[in-house]
Specification:
Length: 370
């Protein structure tokens, strides 16, 4: 297995390989950047086919966390960890405690949290070995499930996107929501409350039927959502949903949803621009949950979190203005703003509270382009 030449290794500050045979732990912690503060990112447990796949995943995800935190105006860097193994078979309290020991050895340069294959409750065990954990259950002083806050950020992002593209509010518009899980369900409630009509889908038919009753939503089959008659498409299920197969079907005016990595390839961002479909970059619009768990690190303050989440809308306005001014896809414009912010950060804040004075609700990223 190659490490330094692996795609996505570029710019990583530190990658740590962990092996503890006593408890069957094999894990990788990747710290992409601590330029703006300690690297925060979830711990994923997954039965990777091989070590190279695990390495590729953790490097790609940790880099993405740097961009997401920077776009949200947080004083945090990007990191991620992966545990190689099947969470249904191999996840034990001993293994989780051993992972906590590995996190603790980094002295606060990396802060961990739940992710795919791990739960908020698992982190009660990790917490026994390290205090560098966020996203804890409320009973342990954490803020619990971050999904409703992610949905709130997506809602603010949809409002901003619709205002930019269509010059109006949501009342009477139709939004197609793909995926009715933790994020999608909360989002439907907010959209229905704002007077939007909903078209929904989920591979879980029970959820779809419940949504049709609860939100008076029209239900379509999973594959029919891309061609739905709707003004806005909100992907809240999985990544790469904007691709060569789905793009020709789309007649939306806006794509703005909670899923990670929505564009299958960068060139799809250009194609969306050519089709005059406004795309809200995923790492900007879905940062609400990160903002919430990050607040545990500084001491949770609801008013401040709400204001930071609402500022996602203002940040998107700046991204759209820059994209229009320069004729670039919105994803590229957002990346440019993030790179600017990273270029102006402090070199290493390990051991600090990771807050470089970026306390204002208005994202510094937004101010740069104002
Ligand atoms: P979830 O697992 O609770 O919900 C996903 C839903 O999508 C499920 O109901 C599932 O049945 C459905 N689904 C899966 N494949 C589908 C398909 N082909 N068509 C229609 N529906 C399908 O997940 P979640 O926590 O709601 O997260 C949704 C997305 O948002 C994910 O991409 C996640 O990475 C991203 N995200 C979540 C958060 C958060 O706070 N939960 C934060 C940032 C990003």
């Amino acid at each position: 297995m190659t490490v330094f030449s692996t795609e996505s290794f570029a710019d990583h500050e530190q990658v740590v390989f962990i092996s503890d045979d006593r408890v069957g732990l094999r894990a990788i912690i990747a710290i992409h950047s601590t330029r703006l503060g300690p690297a925060l990112g979830g711990c994923r447990m997954y039965p990777y086919a091989d070590e190279a796949s695990a390495l590729r995943d953790v490097l790609r995800l940790s880099r993405g966390m740097t961009f997401k935190a920077a776009a949200a105006g947080l004083g945090l860097g990007g990191g991620k960890s992966v545990i190689i193994g099947d969470p249904r078979k191999s996840k034990t309290p001993e293994l989780l405690r051993a992972m906590g020991v590995a996190v603790n050895r980094l002295g606060g340069r990396y802060i961990t949290a739940e992710d795919v294959g791990t739960t908020v409750d698992d982190f009660a065990w990790v917490r026994q070995s390290t205090r560098h954990v966020v996203g804890l259950p409320e009973a342990l002083g954490g803020t619990g499930d971050p999904s409703p806050t992610t949905a709130l950020g997506v809602y603010h992002g949809i409002v901003a996107s619709v205002a930019h593209r269509l010059g109006r509010d949501l009342r009477g518009l139709t939004v197609a929501v793909q995926g009715l899980g933790n994020v999608g369900w909360s989002l439907c409630g907010l959209l229905a409350g704002a007077g939007a009509h909903l078209v929904v889908t989920d591979v879980d038919g029970t959820l779809a039927r419940r949504a049709s009753v609860e939100f008076d939503a029209r239900v379509v089959e999973p594959d029919a959502i891309y061609a739905a008659q709707a003004d806005v498409f909100a992907p809240c299920a999985m990544g790469a949903v904007v691709n060569d197969r789905t793009l020709p079907q789309m007649k939306f005016r806006v794509i703005a949803g909670g899923a990670n990595n929505q564009l299958a390839r960068d060139e799809h961002g250009r194609q969306l621009r050519d089709m005059e479909i406004l795309y809200a970059p995923d790492f900007v619009i879905n940062a609400g949950g990160l903002i919430r768990v990050a607040s545990e690190h500084e001491g949770f303050n609801r008013a401040k979190v709400d204001a930071q989440v609402e500022a996602i809308g203002a940040t998107l306005h700046r991204v759209f203005e820059l994209a229009d001014r320069t004729g670039t896809p919105t994803q590229a414009a957002a990346m440019r703003l993030v790179q600017e912010r990273l270029g102006g950060g402090h070199a290493d804040t390990a051991g600090s509270n990771g807050n470089n004075g970026n306390n204002s609700a208005r994202s510094p990223l937004a101010e740069r382009v104002a």
